[in-house]
């Protein structure tokens, strides 16, 4: 897009400051107060798509019939010899095949092979039968013992991002007579220390401080005593950001080459989506529309505040957006008698202004509940967003799709049993909170 030489564009730095493309302070500006919301889906549409029954009904009278006798199953059992076991463990241990591949190669039923493997893992003293080959296999007696095991476990407890090389150096510094390869350490970590590599979850330092552990314990005790039941009388509200460049974080590529996906060179517009879910379905999903957010040109190049210069600054979800969304959500809840008196669970974000929102919620017959700080595990909708984003990322958008249509499709396709499961997962954290355990 072209513009004349007198036109300059200014941007927000994320902390409230407005600067031009050279980093100079902007002239004066005004904020756009528009807070329109676009409907994506709601509980009525969700029920229609899922074909679920929300309102409880009395069970219909049914005629009791005698159940038909079960047909006898024709069971066939395979009889395996000791040689079959040796052949399976040969493929598993010497050829380093995966358990299912080893079972197939050895012509052994996978369930049977899995039981064999578990039996030997449960009893380390038992010698694993190995198929003899023409090659003599020499196995060096391990230098690593219980002392090394506990040292490694403590080492990675202190720094889970340390590398295997770091572990080797730390071990050899601690145990002077130890001379061992990195590959053996890796094998020992996996088999003896029960350690595995995972994606690192980064938590704020304050997350599990004593004061926040206490706040979680107090929160659970207070609201459970007040009749809050996540699976029976709660709705969970939150917002999340989506953009058109969302891609899967992992990808396939030929060995030795990077996995690369091309994205537009310009920063994609971020869409803020407000959502509300419960154990009976997706209650409300709305997109925060930007309204009239044209960037207006600011004349002049000086750093002085120019009274005639104005810039319209797109903002994130504001208190007005949130209040409108809560009001719309309660309108939907009013249509379902079973949701009367529900608890509305929210995090403690700055846009959730209790002195404004709480009276409105309580006037409508609902109860506002604010989660303790640093407690995303207690809000099931956090997992819901992960499910939706995974569905949005699954494939490239077709010519007839938009990010909005993909979000709608994903939201309406989440089975109610999945909603129940992610809510139950949050309920399972209550005991940890009561015992002041880290989340």
Largest sheet report: 6 strands, mixed
> What is the CATH architecture term of the domain at 37-52 and 206-254 and 268-294 and 312-434?
2-Layer Sandwich
Q: What form results from the Cα inertia axes?
A: extended
The top-level CATH class of the domain at 37-52 and 206-254 and 268-294 and 312-434 is Alpha Beta
Structural class: alpha/beta
- Read across the widest sheet, the strand sequence of neighbours is 4-7-6-5-9-10
InterPro entries: RNaseH_sf, Tc1-like_DDE_dom, Transpos_IS630-like
Organism: Circinella minor
Protein name: Tc1-like transposase DDE domain-containing protein
GO molecular function: nucleic acid binding
Explain what the structure shows.
The structure is a single chain. By secondary structure, the chain is of the alpha/beta class. Among the domains are: 37-52 and 206-254 and 268-294 and 312-434, 2-Layer Sandwich (Nucleotidyltransferase, domain 5), CATH 3.30.420.10; 146-191. Helix content is 36%, strand content 12%. The chain has 14 helices and ten strands. The protein has helices at residues 43-50, 82-94, 99-105, 110-122, 146-158, 164-174, 182-191, 210-225, 319-334, 354-363, 381-393, 403-413, 416-427, 430-434; strands spanning 10-12, 18-20, 30-31, 37-42, 234-243, 270-278, 281-288, 312-313, 343-346, 367-370. The strands form three sheets. Strands 4-7-6-5-9-10 form a six-stranded mixed beta sheet, sandwiched between helices. β6 (270-278) and β7 form a beta hairpin. The radius of gyration is 30 Å and the shape is extended. The protein starts with 9 loop residues before the first strand and ends in a 5-residue tail after the last helix. Residues 1-7, 28-34, 56-65, 132-141, 248-255, 257-268 and 292-317 have low confidence and may be disordered.
């Amino acid at each position: 897009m072209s513009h004349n030489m007198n036109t300059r564009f200014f941007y927000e730095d994320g902390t409230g400051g407005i600067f031009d493309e050279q980093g100079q302070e902007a002239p004066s500006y005004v904020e756009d107060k528009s807070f329109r919301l676009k409907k994506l889906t709601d509980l009525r549409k969700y029920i229609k798509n899922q074909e679920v029954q929300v309102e409880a009904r009395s069970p219909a009278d049914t005629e009791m019939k005698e159940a038909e006798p079960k047909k006898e199953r024709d069971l066939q059992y395979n009889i395996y010899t000791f040689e079959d076991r040796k052949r399976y463990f040969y493929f598993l241990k010497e050829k380093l095949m995966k358990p299912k591949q080893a079972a197939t190669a050895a012509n052994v039923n996978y369930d049977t092979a899995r039981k064999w493997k578990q039996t030997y893992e449960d009893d380390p003293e038992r010698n694993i039968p190995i198929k003899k080959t023409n090659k003599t296999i020499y196995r060096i007696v391990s230098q690593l013992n219980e002392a090394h095991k506990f040292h490694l476990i403590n080492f990675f407890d202190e720094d889970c991002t340390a590398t295997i090389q770091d572990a080797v150096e730390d071990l050899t510094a601690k145990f002077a007579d130890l001379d061992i390869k990195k590959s053996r350490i890796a094998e020992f970590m996996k088999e003896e220390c029960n350690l595995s590599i995972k994606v690192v979850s980064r938590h704020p330092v304050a997350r599990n401080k004593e004061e926040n552990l206490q706040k979680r314990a107090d929160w659970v005790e207070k609201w459970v005593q007040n009749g809050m039941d996540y699976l029976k009388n709660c709705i969970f509200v939150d917002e999340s950001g989506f953009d058109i460049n969302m891609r899967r974080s992992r990808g396939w590529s030929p060995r030795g080459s990077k996995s690369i996906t091309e994205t537009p060179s310009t920063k994609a517009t971020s869409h803020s989506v407000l959502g509300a879910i419960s154990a009976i379905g997706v209650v409300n999903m709305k997109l925060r529309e930007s309204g009239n957010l044209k960037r207006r040109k600011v004349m002049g190049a000086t750093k002085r505040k120019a009274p005639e210069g104005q810039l319209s600054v797109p903002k994130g979800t504001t208190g007005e957006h949130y209040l409108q969304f809560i009001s719309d959500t309660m309108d939907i809840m009013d249509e379902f008698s079973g949701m009367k008196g529900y608890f509305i669970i929210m995090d403690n974000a700055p846009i959730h202004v209790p002195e404004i929102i709480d009276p409105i919620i309580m006037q409508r017959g609902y109860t506002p509940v604010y989660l303790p700080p640093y407690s995303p595990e207690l809000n099931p909708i956090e997992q819901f967003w992960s499910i939706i984003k995974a569905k949005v990322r699954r494939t490239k958008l077709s010519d007839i799709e938009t990010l909005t249509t993909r979000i709608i499709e994903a939201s309406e396709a989440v089975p109610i049993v999945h909603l129940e499961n992610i809510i139950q997962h949050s309920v399972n954290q209550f005991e940890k909170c009561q015992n002041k355990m880290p989340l």
